[in-house]
Amino acid sequence: MIRYELAKAQYAKYGVDTDAAIAKLKEIPVSLHCWQGDDVIGFDHDGPLTGGIQTTGNYPGKARTPEELMADMDKALSLMPGKKKLNIHACYAIFEEGEFVDRDALEPKHFAKWVEFAKERNMGIDFNPTFFSHDKVKDGLTLSSPDKETREFWIRHGQACVRISEYFAKETGIPCVMNIWTGDGYKDIPADRMGPRMRYKESIEAILSVPFDKTLVKPCVESKVFGIGVEAYTVGSAEFTLSFAASHEGCLPLMDNGHYHPTEVVSDKIPALLCFFPEIALHITRPIRWDSDHVVLFDDETKEMAKEIVRCDGLGRTYMALDYFDASINRISAWTVGFRSWQKALLSALVTPNDMLKELQDAGNMTKLMVMQEEMKTMPFGDVWVKYCEECGVAADESWLDDVLAYEKEVLAVRK
Ligand code: RNT
Ligand code: ZN
Questions:
Q1: What is the DSSP string of 232-284?
Q2: What are the residues whose beta carbon lies below 5 Å from ligand 2 (ion)?
Q3: pTM of the model
Q4: What is the residue range of 202's domain?
Q5: Among 32, 76, 360, 365, which is least packed, fewest CB within 10 Å?
Q6: Count of the separate structural domains present in the chain
Q7: Which residue numbers are catalytic?
């Protein structure tokens, strides 16, 4: 491969070892969210998606059963380079024929099929209690509801999920990141902003009071600015969740880059949090004007986030998960484009001469720093990407789409 050899030499000029970058990326797990495959519906309810989030589009062929979802995911997984982890939501519980239990009574056995799926593919599992799309969401509130019974139901759900998370970690031998996100909030100006937050705090504490091994289960709290129909006030705001994580040992802050004001960037928040937290978690998405959850692309902010993780030596301390849902295009392609984009961002960060650039900054040589940062943008990154994909046994170019389109014709198109 002449092109790779030339690229390698060019990067070496700046002290970058592209072989080492490729080898490193192969070991870094990224969580793939099952919910892109069925528009965040799951298997435990017939109702609509609630919680202030929304999928738009009606592309044919979405998965309707665990078998279909797993088959679709398998197709997507086969087209992506790199190490994968599976990310599932509690609403994806798989019941036996005729069986049903409510969310507060979920048990590990309801996820045994997912464990089997993950193990066969050498993947760990991340987990999410589902605090939405359910009739026990009362007036848009769950863990922060003023109604005790409502709160208690959702606390029991969270506790069940801690047990299930531990089961995942034990079964796979890989720690399970358990993310707590609720859409709790108000459409219009509340009269009491602190009350719901105090209740939310106590409820999360109650969830985390069940005994669990902190090396196996990594609980996170995810913040948000607003949701659809929840425009005026969000209980789990940025300050709330960050302070919660900071004051509760073993609890990680989770930043979703769709959940901040439009001029804020998560790339700048990553190094801030890494100064204080031993571990952090991310939801990687692409917001357009709002938390729209578009498919992740290889765009500037995506690259910048990956760069910060790598530059801060944070790869081993940052749990990375994709979180988007596009129902307007082929869902397997959506999964694949998003995962490959984040892989590109990580690889591109790994072949950035970070030490050299840091030295220029510390020497106050901002003139050369600008020149070098610009120079890096036209380095032959594409040739390194091709090599990485080849080593991972996946197509390096767009030809993977032919595979998806063939699958669409054979499998998706016949789902009516
Ligand atoms: C919603 C949050 C949350 C969800 C998933 C499905 O705004 O980002 O993480 O997307 O739990
Ligand atoms: Zn998220």
A1: SEESS-HHHHHHHHHHSTTPEEEEETTSS-TT--HHHHHHHHHTT-S-EEEEE
A2: 256, 283, 323
A3: 0.97
A4: 22-350
A5: 365
A6: 1
A7: 181, 222, 224, 256, 259, 283, 291, 293, 323
